[in-house]
Write a structure and sequence with these properties.
Blueprint (H helix, E strand, L loop, with lengths): L6 E9 L2 H9 L4 E5 L13 H12 L4 E6 L8 H14 L3 E4 L14 E3 L8 H10 L3 E3 L6 H10 L4 E7 L11 H6 L16 E4 L5 E6 L6 E3 L4 H7 L3 E4 L6 H21 L3 E3 L4 E2 L15 E2 L21 E9 L4 E4 L9 E5 L5 E10 L2 E4 L10 E6 L1 H8 L5 E12 L2 E8 L4 E6 L3 E3 L3 H12 L7 E9 L4 E3 L1 H22 L18 E2 L8 H9 L4 E2 L13 E5 L3 H4 L16 E4 L4 E7 L4 E6 L2
Parallel strand pairs: 1-2, 1-11, 1-12, 2-3, 3-4, 4-5, 5-6, 6-7, 7-11, 10-14, 21-25, 27-28
Antiparallel strand pairs: 7-10, 8-9, 8-30, 13-21, 15-16, 15-20, 16-19, 17-18, 17-20, 18-19, 21-22, 22-23, 24-26, 29-32, 30-31, 31-32
Helix pairs in contact: 1-2, 1-8, 5-7, 10-11
InterPro entries: Pept_U32_collagenase, Peptidase_U32, RNA/ubiquinone_mod_enzymes
Organism: Carboxylicivirga mesophila
Pfam family, one: DUF3656
Length: about 600
């Protein structure tokens, strides 16, 4: 007999704002993560406390959790304000804080669950075990981990594990990239990343031979683990996270609906996992993640190192391939392919210089396309669609609703008439009222009217699964009385659900479990005294200030990544040791120059600023 405990599976969606958050919930998210008024790792995705309160109130009706991203590094003069924000969102009913800066743990935090952001560089068993022992309630693992590495962590820990399954990929280990801070004084660890990894670079050998010219050599495709979800369930992931706190509502809705369907299929087949929230979402369109912004897709390192994780020709949204240009006319071109093109679509293609550019479709006549510009169109070229107007309209104008099924009973007793409701979570509400009841002239029609009016839940979050009428006589009621009774019951039950799914309190108590290392360099990201105190309490005897407080960073390691340009060029040093004659390699563009080093033991590439 299988006695393994049942695990709760959570689909975690991003929210740039209140609108995106509600769209995520309506399309099936079990939890939503959102930034507050400050201190979130996406500086341009802040939200007012009023909006967060509205989102929490809506989310909790479905048992959906709301996590607040408070995951930037903090200077000493910011800790108090960050702590105050933590208390404010706690008072609003937030379900957890996502943090990066350990200095926050040395402040008087409210009793709210704390999640370790991926920015805390959670790629080893020792680190995850430490965070669990400190008292973190959930740990966001590094995207670079394989399912085997995740399983190893799971077997030695009990803390819930969170893992990205979709969206943009940082080429560097999260929390360990200092390129933006070095170049533009815009720290990625403080939510200000300028994304230098998406720029063009050239690559030359020690002898000046150019291996690549003006390519986006550090730009990766987008993550898509649609085909690996059950593999991650088996590895021990509990929270399946979608990246995209800067993405718009149509992206969040489409991608959330896609993964909701896939996870539900898995949950239905198994008896060891259950869903983390309530309600059923049926999208009014067919979700297709390939139609939302993407740079092409990769499964990254889920099964270990693989080719094709890079997107060096362009960091832009290429879209889905739809066919080839067959003929070119003066103001139109003819396309061969099976995809229907519509007015208003956005098409993209690569120029002769392999630059991704695009056009807008003004009108079509069969397979003839009349665009707003013919510049760059040539016979035989591949065409992509990066904006499907019809699909986008169907997402933006969708009527998707999230519903909770209920049973409703109208019964008669000595005190009058009682209307009761019971939902799929087992929560019950009832009200008893005296109604103006008259004997029905047509009992069958009267009963039908009662059932119809009681079941009218269309604009609410509820859907009537069964309606039972238990009356002693064949009564007739006025429609307005039945509607009033139903509305009063629904309002009562909404309040019950709101109270039932309020956030759980969890205080973190300071301890002194030893950190895996006794000495820390700038990559520990310590930029305030309380963070120093935290690590000292956990056995660190020597620690450097983080990059943002370093006086001299000229020779610093700006990035460590599992993306290897030698591997990409089919010159992995493990397989082709003769390629060492090319070293050192220099990565450069018109403004900046970097030296590349290769840690083959750990299969990592290191980027340093060239002197």
């Amino acid at each position: 007999m299988n006695t393994a405990p049942v695990r709760t599976i959570e689909l975690l969606s991003p929210a740039k704002n209140l609108e995106c958050g509600k769209a995520a919930i309506d399309h099936g998210a079990d939890a939503v993560y959102i930034g507050g008024p400050g201190f979130g790792a996406r500086k341009n995705a802040g939200n007012s406390l009023d909006d967060i309160e509205q989102l929490i109130s809506y989310a909790h009706l479905f048992g959906v959790k709301v996590y607040i991203a408070l995951n930037t590094l903090l200077f000493d003069n910011e800790l108090q304000a960050a702590n105050e924000l933590a208390h404010q969102v706690y008072q609003l009913g937030a379900d957890a804080l996502i943090i990066q800066d350990m200095g926050l743990l040395e402040t008087d935090l409210p009793p709210i669950p704390i999640h370790a952001s991926t920015q805390t560089d959670n790629r080893s068993l020792d680190k995850v075990k430490f965070l669990e022992d400190v008292g973190f309630d959930q740990v966001v693992l590094a995207r670079e981990l394989s399912s085997n590495e995740i399983e190893t962590i799971r077997q030695a820990t009990t803390v819930p594990l969170e893992y990205f399954i979709h969206g943009a990929l940082c080429v560097c280990y999260s929390g360990q990239c200092y390129m933006s801070a070095a170049i533009n004084k815009r720290s990625a660890n403080r939510g200000e990343c300028a994304q230098p990894c998406r720029l063009k670079y050239s690559l030359k050998t020690r002898n000046g031979e150019e291996l690549y010219h003006d390519k986006h050599l550090l730009s990766l495709k987008d993550l898509n683990l649609s085909g690996h979800l059950e593999q991650l369930v088996n590895a021990g992931i509990s929270s399946f996270k979608i990246e995209g706190r800067l993405k718009d509502k149509d992206y969040v809705a489409n991608v959330t609906a896609h993964y909701r369907q896939m996870l539900d299929d898995i949950i239905k087949r198994r008896n060891d996992v259950v869903r983390a929230s309530s309600g059923t979402s049926i999208a009014s369109y067919t979700p297709e993640v390939g139609k939302s912004f993407n740079r092409g897709f990769t499964s990254y390192f889920i099964n270990g190192r693989s080719t094709g994780i890079w997107s060096i020709d362009s960091p832009k949204n290429r879209g889905e391939q739809i066919g080839k240009v067959m003929q070119v006319g003066k103001d139109h071109f003819t396309i061969v392919g099976n995809t229907s093109i519509n007015n208003g679509d956005g098409l993209s293609f690569y120029t002769k210089k392999k630059e991704l550019t695009g056009l807008k479709v003004n009108r079509t006549e069969g397979n003839k396309v009349y665009p707003n510009s013919m510049k760059g169109i040539r016979q035989g070229m591949n065409l992509f669609r990066n904006f499907d107007k019809a699909f986008t309209d169907s997402v933006n104008n969708n009527t998707t609703q999230r519903k909770i099924k209920v049973n409703i009973i109208l019964s008669e007793n000595d005190n009058g008439f009682t209307l009761s409701i019971k939902d799929t979570d087992g929560l019950e509400s009832s009200i008893t009222r005296s109604l103006d009841a008259q004997m029905a002239n047509n009992p069958e029609r009267a009963l039908e009217q009662i059932q119809t009016q009681i079941a009218k839940l269309g604009s609410t979050i509820f859907e009537a699964d069964n309606v039972h009428i238990n009356l002693k006589n064949n009564w007739f009621f006025k429609t307005k009385d039945l509607n009033g009774l139903r509305r009063e019951l629904i309002e009562c039950h909404l309040q019950k659900r709101q109270a039932h799914f309020k956030a759980k309190e969890r205080a973190m108590h300071p301890n002194s479990v030893p950190f895996p290392k006794s000495e820390l360099n700038f990559t520990a990201n310590i930029i305030n005294q309380k963070a120093q105190q935290f690590y000292a309490r956990h056995g660190v005897t020597n620690s450097d200030w983080g990059f943002e407080k370093q006086a001299n960073t000229s020779n610093a390691e700006l990035m460590r990544t599992r993306h290897c340009l030698l591997y990409m060029n089919n010159q992995c040093l493990k397989e082709h040791p003769e390629a060492r004659r090319l070293l050192p390699l220099t990565l450069y563009n018109d403004k900046d120059s970097y030296l590349l080093e290769f840690d083959c033991k750990n299969c990592e590439m290191i980027i340093k600023k060239a002197k």
